[in-house]
Amino acid sequence: MATFGGEYIEGIVGQPLHINPLLASSNETDKELTQIIYSALFKYSNQGKIIPDLVKSYTLSTDKTTYTIHLKKNVLWQDGQTLTANDVFFTINLISDPAYKSPLRSNWQGIETKVLDDYTLEFKIKTPYVGFLNNLTFGILPKHIWESVPPENFSLTSLNLEPIGTGPYKYSSLQKDSKGNILNYKLTANPNYFDGKPYIAKLTFNFYTDEATAIKALEQKEIMGINALSPQKVAILKTKKSLAIYKFKLPRYFAIFFNQTKSIPIASDEVREALSYATNRKAIINQVLAGNGEPVYSPFLPGMVGYSSSMNSPKFNLTKANQILDQNHWVKGADGFRGKDGIGLEINLVTTQWNELTKTAQVLKSQWAKIGVKVKISDFSLSDIQQNYIRPREYQALLFGQVIGVNPDPYSFWHSSQKKDPGLNLALFGDDKSDKLIEEGRTEFNTKKRQQDYLAFQKILQKQIPAIFLYSPEYIYPVSTSVKGIQVGTLVEPADRFSDINHWYIKTKRIWKK
Known about the structure:
CATH class of the domain at 252-473: Alpha Beta
Shape: globular
Radius of gyration: 25 Å
Number of helices: 14
Distance between the termini: 23 Å
Strand content: 15-25%
CATH architecture of the domain at 252-473: Roll
Mean pLDDT: 95
CATH topology of the domain at 252-473: Dipeptide-binding Protein, domain 3
Helix content: 25-40%
Largest sheet: 6 strands, mixed
Low-confidence stretches: none
Oligomer: single chain
């Protein structure tokens, strides 16, 4: 039975910078704390479905372009003031204003927002868009507190570390070391939370520079959970009876994206086809993720509109891969590597300096060598790869990940208009036919028709092979068995594990008095 009280202490590898929903998207730690302190118009349930948060009800016009949003009444800010539609309008204006440099701004171009009364807003979009409600999952800022902060101070104000929201927990205190690093961050239950007072009285987050230090703290019971665990480390903690290892699915995948403009071999259809057949996804998952992941064959994952098990091809087949290259006159030399017309079958593979991806690259190098392909691996820091490789599209093959959301919209990743930065079309893929299917899919509210559009789009991907999809890793969350009420099935992103944290509780041992 759930009881009130207790404290949950979690270790996080990272540092909070801006616990501000308009700035948090680039820092996982910020997103996690923002999720707990702020509320949004809509949020994701513990099954990954979009559900109302601050919204009481909404209506959609028959032409699918006007949303009328009715807010819950008597929602209080953590300083006691009442939330109204003006707070929502104010927050959206900040997002839309380039002076505030919010990463969310691109979602709010060309959208008209009106306040109809204190608890009603209207959003008008130019064309129907199935995923519009997903754009309403950002936390709302209190106008009465933030309106006095000018744009030049928006990312600098102390409010970014001492926030006031309407979420289940409110800021209490933080502790820094002599260098200004935050050691811990404390929250207390919000007794006025509109969805009911949380059971756990206090939350404390301790911050660590690396996973090994966080694991040591967990083993010594200084903390009760870690925000994420590498798949290879599961075996270390699995034997601990005091820990529960939660594994969640996330709508993300990792793939090799080909830039056919930078390599003659990669521009050859038969080479990309052979590479696809030579890729053993299950071996990669076992060697890199210790089995904690699922093979992926397209940008649509199980449970999404557009997913079909029939897209699970081509299968791993070394014999066929070699035959394809033989038939197209890529001849093996004395060193075992192939060439054609004086051009060596060599690929420069670029990835980030993240353990899982560098290991994946090494496994791929070994797998592809078996069909005579020479691979040179280069790994860089995330900032370096973003600035010098992804933005200018200066790579032959890129091993990277994409987070797609539970409401699949391939536009940002696969529409031809997104080939150049800041677009995210890393494979420089797309033509009129594929673009049309993507555009129709994102405006089609009939699920069956939308499914058909996305299946047709995937058939083009499957034929042209602009990328080789590899795997979707599980998100692993170790937590003390004394923490109860964690009822999560599918996450949109790791921070959403806290979507119903007000229902978590600490199981205490009953002491019988003699």
